[in-house]
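Bug report (template v2)

What were you trying to do?
Predict the complex of my protein with magnesium ion.

What happened?
Run completed; filing so the output is reviewed.

Input:
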Amino acid sequence: MKLDTKSLRYLTPEDWRVLAAVEMGSKNHEIVPTSMIDKIARLRGGSSGVHKSISTLAKNGLIGRIKEAKYDGYRLTYGGLDYLAMHTHSQRDIVYSVGHRVGVGKESDIVMVADKTGQQRILKIHRLGRISFRTVKSNRDYLKRRQGGSWMYLSRLSAMREYAFLESLREEGFPVPEPFAQSRHTIVMSFIDNALPLRQVSAVPDPASLYAELIGLILRLARHGLIHGDFNEFNIMIQEQKPEDDDAQNGVGESSPGASIVPILIDFPQMVSMEHKNAEMYFDRDVACVKRFFERRFHFIATRPGPFFKDALATVGQDGAKRIDIAVEASGFTKKMSKDLEAAILEQQNTEISDESESIEDDEDDEDDEDDESDQNDSEVTEALDDNSRRDASAKEDKEESKRER
Ligand code: ADP
Ligand code: MG
């Protein structure tokens, strides 16, 4: 689903309050009755116009009307949740303008945004839980039970988890984007510039050393108790770093003399602990993924076998390496949350596998990626999110909101 910010600027403080009321009501009501929206919005300082706001929001597709036998009410849509998150990022000066869409994953949208100074950042919108139920029955049943399957809950969990991992990894000096903020189902992080996903890199100066570096990262993650779990050519960005005075015009691939390439890891919601019951399978799969890619793309085959899970397991926590797996689990993730998210991600990965099998022959061309690029070109101009005049009017409201979010 595309992020659509068309009417973001035109919503009044009252509209925002009513939208937030629908969000609040949906925490324990699948359909939020109109009377409840009215009550929550008024409690938060609104007076009149709740119904007018409801109709504005519905017209813009931010809430959807649901007619039921028992009572009528509204549900927050993906668009509504997007708006609330963008509003928060904008009020906190994390995001000032929205640019083009950089990528679409099956379960995420990646959008270029910028702060007030024009510094580019990446907004990742998690869209988990548009579930197609293809996995084994036990997982399917698990997700169907109560909240486990709700898109809003799952997408938020996914963003929270990715943000927590990003923060810890960054702290430990891993080459990952810098995390700036998380709101609801979205995170904002630094834009990795002058880089391409490994998938789009046709040649590197020294495949052996890049291979060693990537395997080194897998082993370093393991020391911190972690397995990436999706360590593939889409989630490894290759950045070209120039020595000293850089003329940052060259893209990766047009190697300039003296430039070095650095892998940067992205995409972390699915990371698992080295102590996960299927850890060995995940670890081996990550390693195999690198090997397969290097053989196909660069015709490089490592002379040494491994690395092996058993050896990596023996290094967990070694030399005082911080156990990031434990730290993140302890940072407000209940067992149930982890289980819910894992089930949803498993569902997503299974869907991906069955989709990919249809296009395995054209693995070497980058059709999908090119589609995305053409998508961005016609919307190069960034769009300011908020009128400054509106900014002050809703500052008070946002303070309340940030209190609530914590
Ligand atoms: P998904 O979970 O949908 O796979 P990713 O986090 O892997 O999402 O991002 C999808 C794509 O978006 C990546 O392959 C990469 O091309 C681009 N991307 C994501 N994050 C960044 C970033 N911080 N800087 C530059 N490009 C990014
Ligand atoms: Mg990815």
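What did the reviewer find?
Residues 102-103, 105, 107-108, 110, 122, 124, 177, 189, 191-192, 197, 234-235, 266-267 surround adenosine-5'-diphosphate (ligand 1) (CB under 6 Å). Confidence is low (pLDDT under 50) at residues 355-382, 387-406.
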